[in-house]
Amino acid sequence: MRWNLCRRFGPWILIWSPFWACSPSAPELPEAKQWLPESPPNVLLICIDTLRADAVDGGPNAAPTPHLDALKASGLVADQAWACSNQTVPGHVGVLTGLAASRHGVRSNLEVFPDRVESLAERFQRAGWQTAGVITNALLRPEAGWKRGFDQYLDHSDQVHDSKGLVAGGRPAAEVVNQAAHQLLQEFATKDQPWFLFLHYLDPHVPYGAPAPFAGSQGGDPQALASRYRRHLLADPIAPISQTLVRLVAADLPRGRGEARQAVRNLHNLYLEEVAYLDDKIGELLSWVQQGDRPPVILFTADHGEQFGEHQRMLHATSLYEPAIRIPMILHVPGGPQGFRLSAPVFQRDVAPTLLALAGLPWQDLDGRPMFQIDTGRDHLAGDAHWLSFYWGKWKAIARRDASGPQLMELYDLEQDPQEEHNLLADQEAPQALVEALQRVLAQDQHRRPGPLGDRHKKILQDLGYVEEE
Fold it and tell me: Which domains does the chain have, with CATH numbers?
């Protein structure tokens, strides 16, 4: 099945198509026992902040990503992968715990890593792996609980955050991450133990923009924006697109302003230029880790997507529509299947079980399943502090959280309406079986109301723009 999500903005059509490169006659995946690692493998987990699925799918709205294309060709690609939220903290909790959204209970960036759950790093550390992480988003800072299980947890958010935005001193986040990762890889090589390395890349989170030679490569031009937007450009020469600017464009879209429609295309191009830059840095990283006699298992994914005018929305923490929730997921296993596409839906909760299974470690107590053992028929909950979306078969329901229970507001048949244009609740009730399934999921909800935010957390949220988005 191929989904082409189209939005027309004047003369421009944005086609959102995460299945663009799918082959209807893809071969069957060989049995896992034929290619699972025979000895404890090194494991590399790459999680990109704010990477929508179609930005790297090879389709009409994708950036040129030759290194990720090569990774796909050498591994398994999930044709359908969903995040558990539209925000960084819950998305990363899902990735690093293997738990469904209702079970880990984290809904928004107002929260921290829950102390009641075990992280993937803790499992690897207990089993004897060297463990290390590198992050550039202060929401994942060590004192917020994310350091648990890591022998080394390097927080470089201070190198990319400042009071006006995210990139300071003209140094992109990916450069910072790769420098730290290279040092860690050299340290890993001095020991016989296998290693687990978690890398978080803040690119391509707003402010959009890329260094040369990627700047302008996809047609992005900050100076071509209308004057009402240009006045909000940042002074940073690499990433000048401020959150204030993007929010102004979002506010103008429902008013039918032509300059807003043109700005959406420009901003999307700037975003794709940053994705192209990110791919180049990922290629650099892969060239390092694939040297030697123990190349790692690699899983590449994202915490959430990004919106460019769909449903007249921008950024990501503003809705639960598909562009904000659909993410890429690629798995590479040395000596494993190459060029295989997984048609069954995959979720963030499947990341931890996949890596644990490949390492020969227990995973069965988690909600997810290894990517190579997934069947169809699983439901999925995604949400934030105020809204939730529930996937059940071909249906997607969007509901407002309420003290009396979820209030269904939208219902879509994703097979017939992948663009989410026709809210079926105007003409019919939601299937009773869907409602009952959602009630069962929410009955397991482990959410705990977050305590008062400290000044540091408030500052981080303001810098990242989430205070105004929520």
Answer: 36-376 (3.40.720.10)
